[in-house]
Amino acid sequence: MTLKLRRLSHALGAEVCDIDVTRPRSEAEFGEIYRAFLAHGILLFRNQDITREQHIEFSRRFGELDRHDALPRDRHPQYPEILLVTNEPNADGTPSDTRYTGRQWHSDMSFTTSPSLGSLLRCFTIPEVGGDTLFASMYLAYDTLSDGMKQLLAGLHCIHLAGTRKIANATTGIPRAEEQRRINPPVAQPVVRVHPETGRKALYLGEKVKCFDGMTDEESRPFIDYLNRHATRPEFVYRHQWRANDILIWDNRCTMHQALGDFDETERRHMERTTVLGTPSGYVVASA
Ligand code: SIN
Questions:
Q1: Which pLDDT value is given to residue 286?
Q2: Which of 142, 207, 216, 244 has the fewest CB atoms within 10 Å, counting from its CB?
Q3: Is 55 helix (H, G, I), strand (E, B) or coil?
């Protein structure tokens, strides 16, 4: 097999064209897909009208799947490997808890000591316009820092929090955010991570980050805000416009992403995600 790739942006991403992800393939064939994933940070597969079982099966080729114990309210009731991201109301008519998932820049599960290797998001329903997702290359974010800033950041850790979705908290309730924090105590992660497979350095932060470990919020904020702004400069970003039956996998070790609320909320947006477990990283901190 030789993959037909179409690059999605200068910064990152490639579409794998003319492929059926459900077709059984050898380790050697899958190896080509995996190498493209490492090289591009994001792979897009269009027109994959597959079952949940097939979504899970394809995801397992990338590694062991998270059963989402850190986010128990958000998983599919029959498939713990699938996380819902939907604004479809619950069966009793109440608003979905996950309608604002991902609205801040983040890398999946960074608030745990088992942050994710990668996530595979499948699009079921998308509004007529909007509902896009932004992805940023954290390799480029790191590479383009000055030597002085790189030296300053070497060895620093940032404290990542769960349940910091400001919009969600305001509308779907503080108890949910409190539950998430109870299950997931604050975790410190290196600000610069070495990708375990490519060996490249990448920035690792986002809008769930509170402060540097060992510094106050006030001391940390200007740097964290600067680094997040720098990392999400338009030239480091790919904006994905979803179509139904897209599956997109991103590498959480060298990218971060943000779901945009750029759509009419009376229209439906329904996505389902599997999350591939990564290597352990970071440490729990007593309080933050
Ligand atoms: C996520 O952060 O996993 C969801 C992203 C999206 O819904 O676009």
A1: 82
A2: 216
A3: helix
In percent, the amount of the chain with pLDDT more than 90 equals 84
pLDDT in tens, 53-99: 999 999 999 999 999 999 888 999 999 999 999 999 988 998 898 99
Cα 210–Cα 190–Cα 104 angle in degrees, nearest 5: 40
Q: How far apart are CA 5 and CA 19, in angstroms?
A: 10
188 beta partners: 159, 283
Q: What are the backbone dihedrals phi and psi of residue 259, each rounded to the nearest 5 degrees, phi first?
A: -85, 130
* Atom 7 of ligand 1, residue of closest alpha carbon: 259
Ligand 1 atom with the shortest distance to the CA of 257: 2
Q: Which ligand 1 atom lies nearest to the CA of residue 102?
A: 2
Task: Determine the Cα–Cα distance for residues 157 and 282; give it in Å rounded to an integer.
Answer: 8
Length of the chain: 288
Nearest protein CA to atom 3 of ligand 1, as residue: 102
Q: Are strands 255-259 and 133-137 parallel, antiparallel or unpaired?
A: antiparallel
Q: What's the rounded mean pLDDT across residues 46-56? A: 98
Q: How far apart are CA 156 and CA 50, in angstroms?
A: 43
